[in-house]
Write a structure and sequence with these properties.
Layout: E1 3-8, H1 11-15, E2 21-26, H2 47-50, E3 52-60, E4 62-66, E5 78-80, E6 84-94, E7 98-108, E8 113-118, E9 121-128, E10 141-147, E11 165-171, H3 185-191, E12 204-206, E13 209-210, E14 216-217, E15 222-224, H4 228-231, E16 247-249, E17 255-257
Antiparallel strand pairs: 1-10, 2-3, 2-11, 3-10, 4-7, 4-9, 5-6, 5-8, 6-7, 8-9, 12-15, 13-14, 16-17
């Protein structure tokens, strides 16, 4: 069976719908991980399986984990707690009684932990799965199917918390277009074997300098060494968006820090 995974959404999640598409990109190489890092580790499905255009099969309002499920609901059942009610969109059971339940069309708000009921009969006590960081911009979940199966457990920490998963584009079901281009300068650094000298593959700076008298000559202009996917086609006055994750620099020992 194909494994299901969920992507945290923000503004796009609020206006998204089933059968819309999200384009994902995984930053395998970064200043924090110059030799590379895989999604879900070496035992995961790999970078190629995660990246690319994915169809949103459902919008999920809440994800509930039940450690001891005493009554098994099915897809389409209505489950309720003291503070919320919603419909089961998907359920996964492991080790007989451990369950992850995806809830859609939720009215109200599930508490962090509470008892869940089916037709007034208890199914057990749940824990609400929450994003580990920035809950203030959390808008819900997307269910995305179709990546290869890999070994995991319901209780194992599964959230990708490092900032290496990129939402490259969002395409509604009514649109017919190619995704916007995306590239990572650290891919060039790795391909050219420049890990010890990463600025040869990607460089960011500004044109201010000190003149021969030692006085600052300040400039509002910046420069960036960009990947060929952009430089081969870019022309004057084109707009682009740039994301800076972390920067390596300073005197030895070289450190990694935020921009």
């Amino acid at each position: 069976m194909a494994i299901r995974y969920l992507k945290k959404g923000i503004a796009e999640q609020e206006r998204s719908a089933e059968n819309d598409k999200v384009v994902l990109n995984w930053q395998e190489y970064s200043q924090n991980y110059p030799t590379g890092i895989k999604p879900w580790g070496v035992g995961g499905p790999g970078v190629a399986a995660l990246e690319g255009q994915k169809v949103i099969s459902a919008k999920i309002d809440a994800v509930l984990y039940v450690d001891n499920l005493i009554r098994i609901p099915t897809v389409g059942d209505s489950l309720s707690s003291a503070t919320a009610v919603g419909e089961v969109q998907y359920i996964r059971i492991e080790n007989v009684s451990q369950a992850i339940i995806y809830m859609k069309d939720v009215s109200g708000e599930f508490l962090a932990t509470d008892e869940i009921f089916l037709n007034a009969v208890s199914c057990g006590t749940f824990e609400k799965v929450q994003p580990g960081t920035h809950p203030e911009v959390f808008g819900g979940w997307w269910r995305i199917d179709g990546i290869p199966t890999f070994t995991t457990t319901v209780t194992e920490l599964q959230e990708i918390s490092i900032p290496n998963l990129v939402g490259q584009d969002f395409i509604t079901s009514s649109e017919s277009r190619s995704p916007v281009p995306f590239s990572n300068t650290m891919d060039d650094v790795n391909a050219l074997n420049l890990i010890v000298d990463p600025t040869r593959g990607g460089r960011l700076g500004h044109l201010s300098y000190y003149d021969k008298l030692g006085l600052p000559n300040l400039s509002e202009l910046w420069f960036i060494r960009a990947p060929k996917i952009f430089t081969d086609v870019a022309v004057k006055n084109d707009d682009f968006k740039m994301w800076v994750n972390t920067i390596r620099g300073g005197v030895a020992p070289i450190s990694v820090f935020g921009p």
